[in-house]
Fold this sequence. Notes:
The complex is a heterodimer.
Chain A: H1 4-18, H2 22-46, E1 53-61, E2 66-72, H3 74-93, H4 101-120, H5 124-145, H6 157-189, H7 197-202, H8 207-224, H9 233-240, H10 243-268, E3 275-280, E4 283-285, H11 286-306, H12 311-332, H13 335-367, H14 372-375, H15 380-383, H16 385-398, H17 405-420, H18 425-447, H19 465-483, H20 486-496, H21 502-505
Antiparallel strand pairs in A: 1-2, 3-4
Helix pairs in contact in A: 1-2, 1-4, 2-3, 2-4, 3-4, 3-10, 3-13, 3-19, 3-20, 4-5, 4-10, 5-6, 5-10, 6-8, 6-9, 8-10, 9-10, 9-12, 10-12, 10-13, 11-12, 11-18, 12-13, 12-17, 12-18, 13-16, 13-17, 13-19, 13-20, 16-18, 16-19, 17-19
Chain B: H1 2-18, H2 23-47, E1 56-64, E2 69-75, H3 77-97, H4 105-123, H5 127-136, H6 138-148, H7 153-182, H8 187-196, H9 198-206, H10 213-231, H11 240-247, H12 250-275, H13 277-282, H14 284-304, H15 308-332, H16 338-376, H17 388-391, H18 393-407, H19 414-428, H20 430-455, H21 471-489, H22 492-508
Amino acid sequence: MLAWTIYLSFAGALVARLCPSKALARAVALLTALAGLGISLVTLRRWIPGELVTVANIPWIPQLGLSFHLAADGISLTLLLLTGIAATAGILFSWNIEHRTQEFFAFYLVLIAGVYGVFLSFDLFLLFVFYEIAIIPKYFLIAIWGSVGRGAKNANPGSQREYAAMKLALYSFAGSALVLAGMAATWAASGGHSLSFEFLAQYPFSSHFQFWAFPLVFVGFAVLAGMWPFHTWAPTGHAAAPTAASMLLAGVVMKLGAYGCLRVAMMLFPRGLDPWGFHVLGIGSWRDVFAVLAVIGIVYGATVALVQRDFKFVIGYSSVSHMGFVLLGLMTLTQIGLDGAVLQMFSHGVIAGLLFAVVGRMVYDRTHTRELGELGPLRLAHVIPFAAVTFILAAMASIGLPGFSGFVAEFQVLIGTWHTFPGLILFAGIGILIGIAFTWRALTKAFYVEGPPAEHPHPLPPITIPEKLGSFLLLASTLIVGLYPRILIDLILPALNSPLFDGLRKGAWR
Amino acid sequence: MITLLTLLPFVGGLFVLLVGRNRALARLVAMLFGVGALLITCFFWWGFDPQFPGMQYEVLHPWVPSLGMAYHVGVDGLGILMLALSALVVVISLAASWANENHDRLYFALVLFLECGLFGTFTALNFVHWFIYWELSLIPAFFLVRLWGGPNRARASMLFFLYTMVGSIALLLAFLAIFLATGQFDFVQLAQLGQSGQLTTALAQNLHWSGNPQHLALLVFWGAFLGFAVKTPVVPFHTWLPRTYSEASSETTMLLTGAMSKMGVYGFLRILLPIFPHQMQQEMKPLLWMAVATIVLPAFAAWVQKDLKRTFAYSSINHLGYCVLAVCAVASFTGTTAEAAIEKSAALTGVLLQIFSHGLTAAALFWFIALLERRSGGLRGIDEFGGLRRVMPVFSGLMGIAIFASLGLPGLNGFPGEFLIFKGVFALAPWAASISVLGLLMTAVFLLTVIQKVFSGPVNPRWEAMPDLTTAERWVFLPIIGLMFVIGLYPQLITGMVHVTVAQWAAGVRF
Lengths: 510, 511
């Protein structure tokens, strides 16, 4: 049944494009997204912990050993749920799009379909195909419907959007090229019979092959996960995208990268994480390299966010910082750290979505400015208190206050870090502190500034019902997972203990 | 049962938000919930069996077993005392806000949310569950300072928030290491591991620590210490406090000093002393010096302040310093003799008395300042008044009683606590107690200076028409001042509740 998430999204895209009226296109898009979320939720209810559900396995190009193989384990299901939630919320927050509405939702749903496809693929080639499908609509969503900041060098809004869109597309394709090269090498090294994960996870690749294939594929995917120093597409892309696309970019698309890192690079080439046998500056394996890069990302992203003047860039850099925790968790190679990493993918997806919704939809679409300095005097906390309260709650979730999903996730990543990299724990702690500082700075600067209220040329329209619904959906998700994390932990942990990850568990796993 | 008590203020807060823009109704609803919580606490107090060792009203549910998270609540003598104090301080603060027109329904709702956080912190026995309340109580406190404070409130609230967060993150990281080592988040279990010394070895083993295992345990201890040192505060982590207390509206300061600062001392007693006894003993020199500094330096600082609120803010640090001193002295002494146990019991009983009596006195003092501010149009400089004794005798008399209580005059509530603390500490760490007497002396000096400058001397002509306490205010102050006398003359009221808990601590902290 899970495969219908993909088919329905493609069908929905087609129907939305052909709809005669804008209202109808919106309704179609919303129904499609809700159907996807519903399918994931129904699957969650029937889920038996630890199972691997094969959804479809049809020979595709038998001569090359490629098949249309869809399957889901607990990790996939967690991210499918996230996609369903983010997609539904994104549509609710783009209810006000009037410019080429039908096309907007068509592109949007194609993106969703691609994302569902990646999370469900159990064949490396198929995963790659869906991964590429997801890149195309991103470009158009930003280039046509994007938003423009005032601080940019180029005053021409069109070219600014295109710059961001092109940067994002080029970075994505560069990452894909690495993945493609890795995939071709894998295909050749494994004898060219199959690219199915079940086959490859058991295939005994030589240590030497894994030694260089692992970083190749890992970096390829990590580009999209916003790993420092390949993160620069993220803030520009997030900031230039229309609200719904920012929510999806930060919420789901960055997870594609992190998911690829785990599902492809780490699951297939676990020996690539083994020590090299020599040390350079105290770094003795790819694992150390990426852990250090992840921590640099955490601290760097947070520090840069601290000095941004553009509200959307603050959130954009915060994504880089929070995704650093995902990569750090992956590199701890402990059960608890990996569990935290997957949970952080979910949690960041929901929270970043909410933050972008407040900044992009509730604030920018009403005030037409993203400058923190200009937002303060508008006294937004009095004018649109709903936005202020939502942002406070989202900020609390984002800085990892207990009770929200971010806490449970970061907390497990940190335990894993204590176990594997006790020397990095201090930097991670500093990263969290700077994270608190920039979030609270943005909060007070945007909503709670003293002084005489500035006159706004036109009264701000009130918060609409779709916005409220979307906010409630996202807040409820982060709170439910925060207070009862077993919902997801019971999915993730058995999946990590399944035979697929045998190779990883044989390393320095605990 | 305890769950119900913790949830009550939260529901009350939501209810207050719902009742609409009617301020009178909001404050009434908030007061009803506050008094309701106080009554339930009294009910707990009444049903509490002071002879029973261990936790009472205990509830334990698994939550996320794979992460050691459980819903574990319960109270011992310390817990019940803290519950009573927070419920009392919240009601006093709500009463003080009654006539403050700036405080709207959001204010009352935040106060109730804060109360929920306090109750949760003082009853939770599992770290994760406890940490939720510890952190979430900070959010209403931040907004209480941020939205209703003085002109520099933006800076003050941010400083308060970030400082506390630094401590909290250090505390969190320390506990994550502990969890990794022991697979436990339960305070009761961890205390056993800590006292038997297994914690140190487990930490070194499970974190692949190549150096001296003691060093790692000390690192973890200092991380946890930082969390509580900022909150209490302990010098030199106190710099956020004077600014925050003086910028916050006085009603908020009552909550901050009366109840929230006790969270730090509570952490010393519930977490540091039971879980890290060996580490505290190893580090007794710096700990005792910090405690002494916390007593002496703020007392001098308070003396030179020109702003009444800042004076009493520093005085708060000084008063909580006695608690820190006693806890550190108890941990530092290695003797196992019967006399040592008696001295430890004395010091710890003193801490609990001091917690309660400082909460009560500080809340009352800041209320008096709030009243003074409201009558003078926001002025609160020490030199701006004078001769108030003649203008408003009842006010001056009652505030005088509160100041003398703060000073530790026998017969009032401040005395038994400080007396027992000094009695215990003199035996356990004589040099620290001797230096701390200087703080006691300076407290007397600056408090008498306040009395002299504000209440006596020539009447400042500006305030000749300042109205005295109204009848309503007199009636509200009556039970508070009365309680001060009751505790001063009959400290058995509190010591009777806590003596079993204290005896256990005194016996458990052996080396």
